[in-house]
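In this section we walk through a basic example: taking a raw amino acid sequence and producing a predicted 3D structure, encoded as discrete structure tokens. The instruction is simple. Fold the sequence below.
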Amino acid sequence: MSDPLQNYIDGHWVGALAGRTFENRNPADRNDLIGLFPAGGPDDVDRAVGAAKQAFHSWRLVPAPKRGEILYRVGELLKKHKEELARVETREMGKILKETRGDVQEGIDCAFYVAGEGRRLFGETTPSELPDKFAMSVRAPIGVCVLITPWNFPLAIPTWKLFPALLCGNTVILKPAEDTPHTAVRFVELLEEAGVPPGVVNLVHGRGEEVGAALVRHPEVKLVSFTGSAAVGREIASVCGQSLKRVSLELGGKNAQIVMEDADLDLAVEGALWGAFGTTGQRCTATSRLIVHRDVRKRLTDMLVARAEKIKIGNGLDESVEMGPLINHAAREKVQRYVGIGKLEGARLVIGGSSYEEEKCADGYFFRPTIFDRVAPTMRIAQEEIFGPVLSIIEIKNFEEAIEVLNGTPYGLSSSIYTQDVGRAFRAMRDIEAGITYVNGPTIGAEVHLPFGGVKDTGNGHREAGTTVYDIFSEWKAIYVDYSGKLQKAQIDNN
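The resulting token sequence is shown next.
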């Protein structure tokens, strides 16, 4: 493997021009130093953007099917290195191996899916209103694209952005989260091995306030795709708006699972556990609210607590572990702060609510699975994104109230309802204000061939994954071919 402690610019592994570095440590064991990575700055950004701009001239002319073939080779390499990449991820960001293997599998699925789209990057043909005239629309690449990705899915989310961007003929600069630089390095190494030409993909490490800000403001960057917090997303949107730069935002969530009185409670409990405590609650689609009919609330709560108490916490590299650490100290402090807020608001802490530091976990950022009940819909713990293993149980009396409570937050990413009533299921699909709705399934589990994104404060309306992602990474061009041999004027009466 190439030296992992470097940026990747114009086909070369290089250090930061200023010579600065930052540490990357295992969140399950702070004594485990993964490495020192370059702390880039505006000069590194200029180099990367320049390389991407130059490479764009030739890459845009490579036929889309050929670009797809390169991405197919990337998929084969991801498949070959799946276990290695999963272990790199787990060591770097903490979630259990079962989940990081799934993260890599998403990348594999995305590579093969997008590769096929190289032969289906369709435009449209349509009749002209004039004789002897042909009309059509085609997709055209945009140019240099910046991809700013989070730490919780350090491989899957970059693939969701980068593969469609490349397929459309764009060049990219990937700016990964500071907490997961090693996964990004291994990913880019595989892109290089698959034959992605120099300058087409560039990697710049560093802090968001420095590298991210410089990339967003750079005049030669034509598009910014960002996944992260709503607060940062608003800042990026504001900057991009000043120069009319295209921007795609996938932001926070406050997702809810509804459990009606006729639900399969065993299934609902398993869904809530997976949705709330998978990835230690650190997903934008995590289940943070459980909206439960009053007739089954007590029974469901008892079942949930009994199962949550048995969740094994520890280093994700241990195959028997069910929940790993939070990503860093700040994340754990934030979760602890919200536990205090919940208590002050009058919610009842049923289980958890504190750090977990037993045995080998003393040197990591572990937190116990936490459940509140007697939560009012207007409480902060029911309104604000916590991004940790905290589940709030809200009691409702009927279906209509359940929908009202679910919709009663600023966010609208993912949602779920457990019911045996097909009528309720279809009304929920119609009335829930969210970009994703599951019936009898948890709020997590998106698939690469369907649109991903949300409404309200969850983003700015764009959808990644599926075929809708190409509307982010391409421009539409209308083309008219007049073969009449004379001047014809559209919308003008020629009679």
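Looking at the output, two observations stand out. Residues 114 and 183 are 21 Å apart (CA to CA). The domain at 7-251+459-479 is CATH 3.40.605.10 (Aldehyde Dehydrogenase; Chain A, domain 1). In the next section we compare this with other chains.
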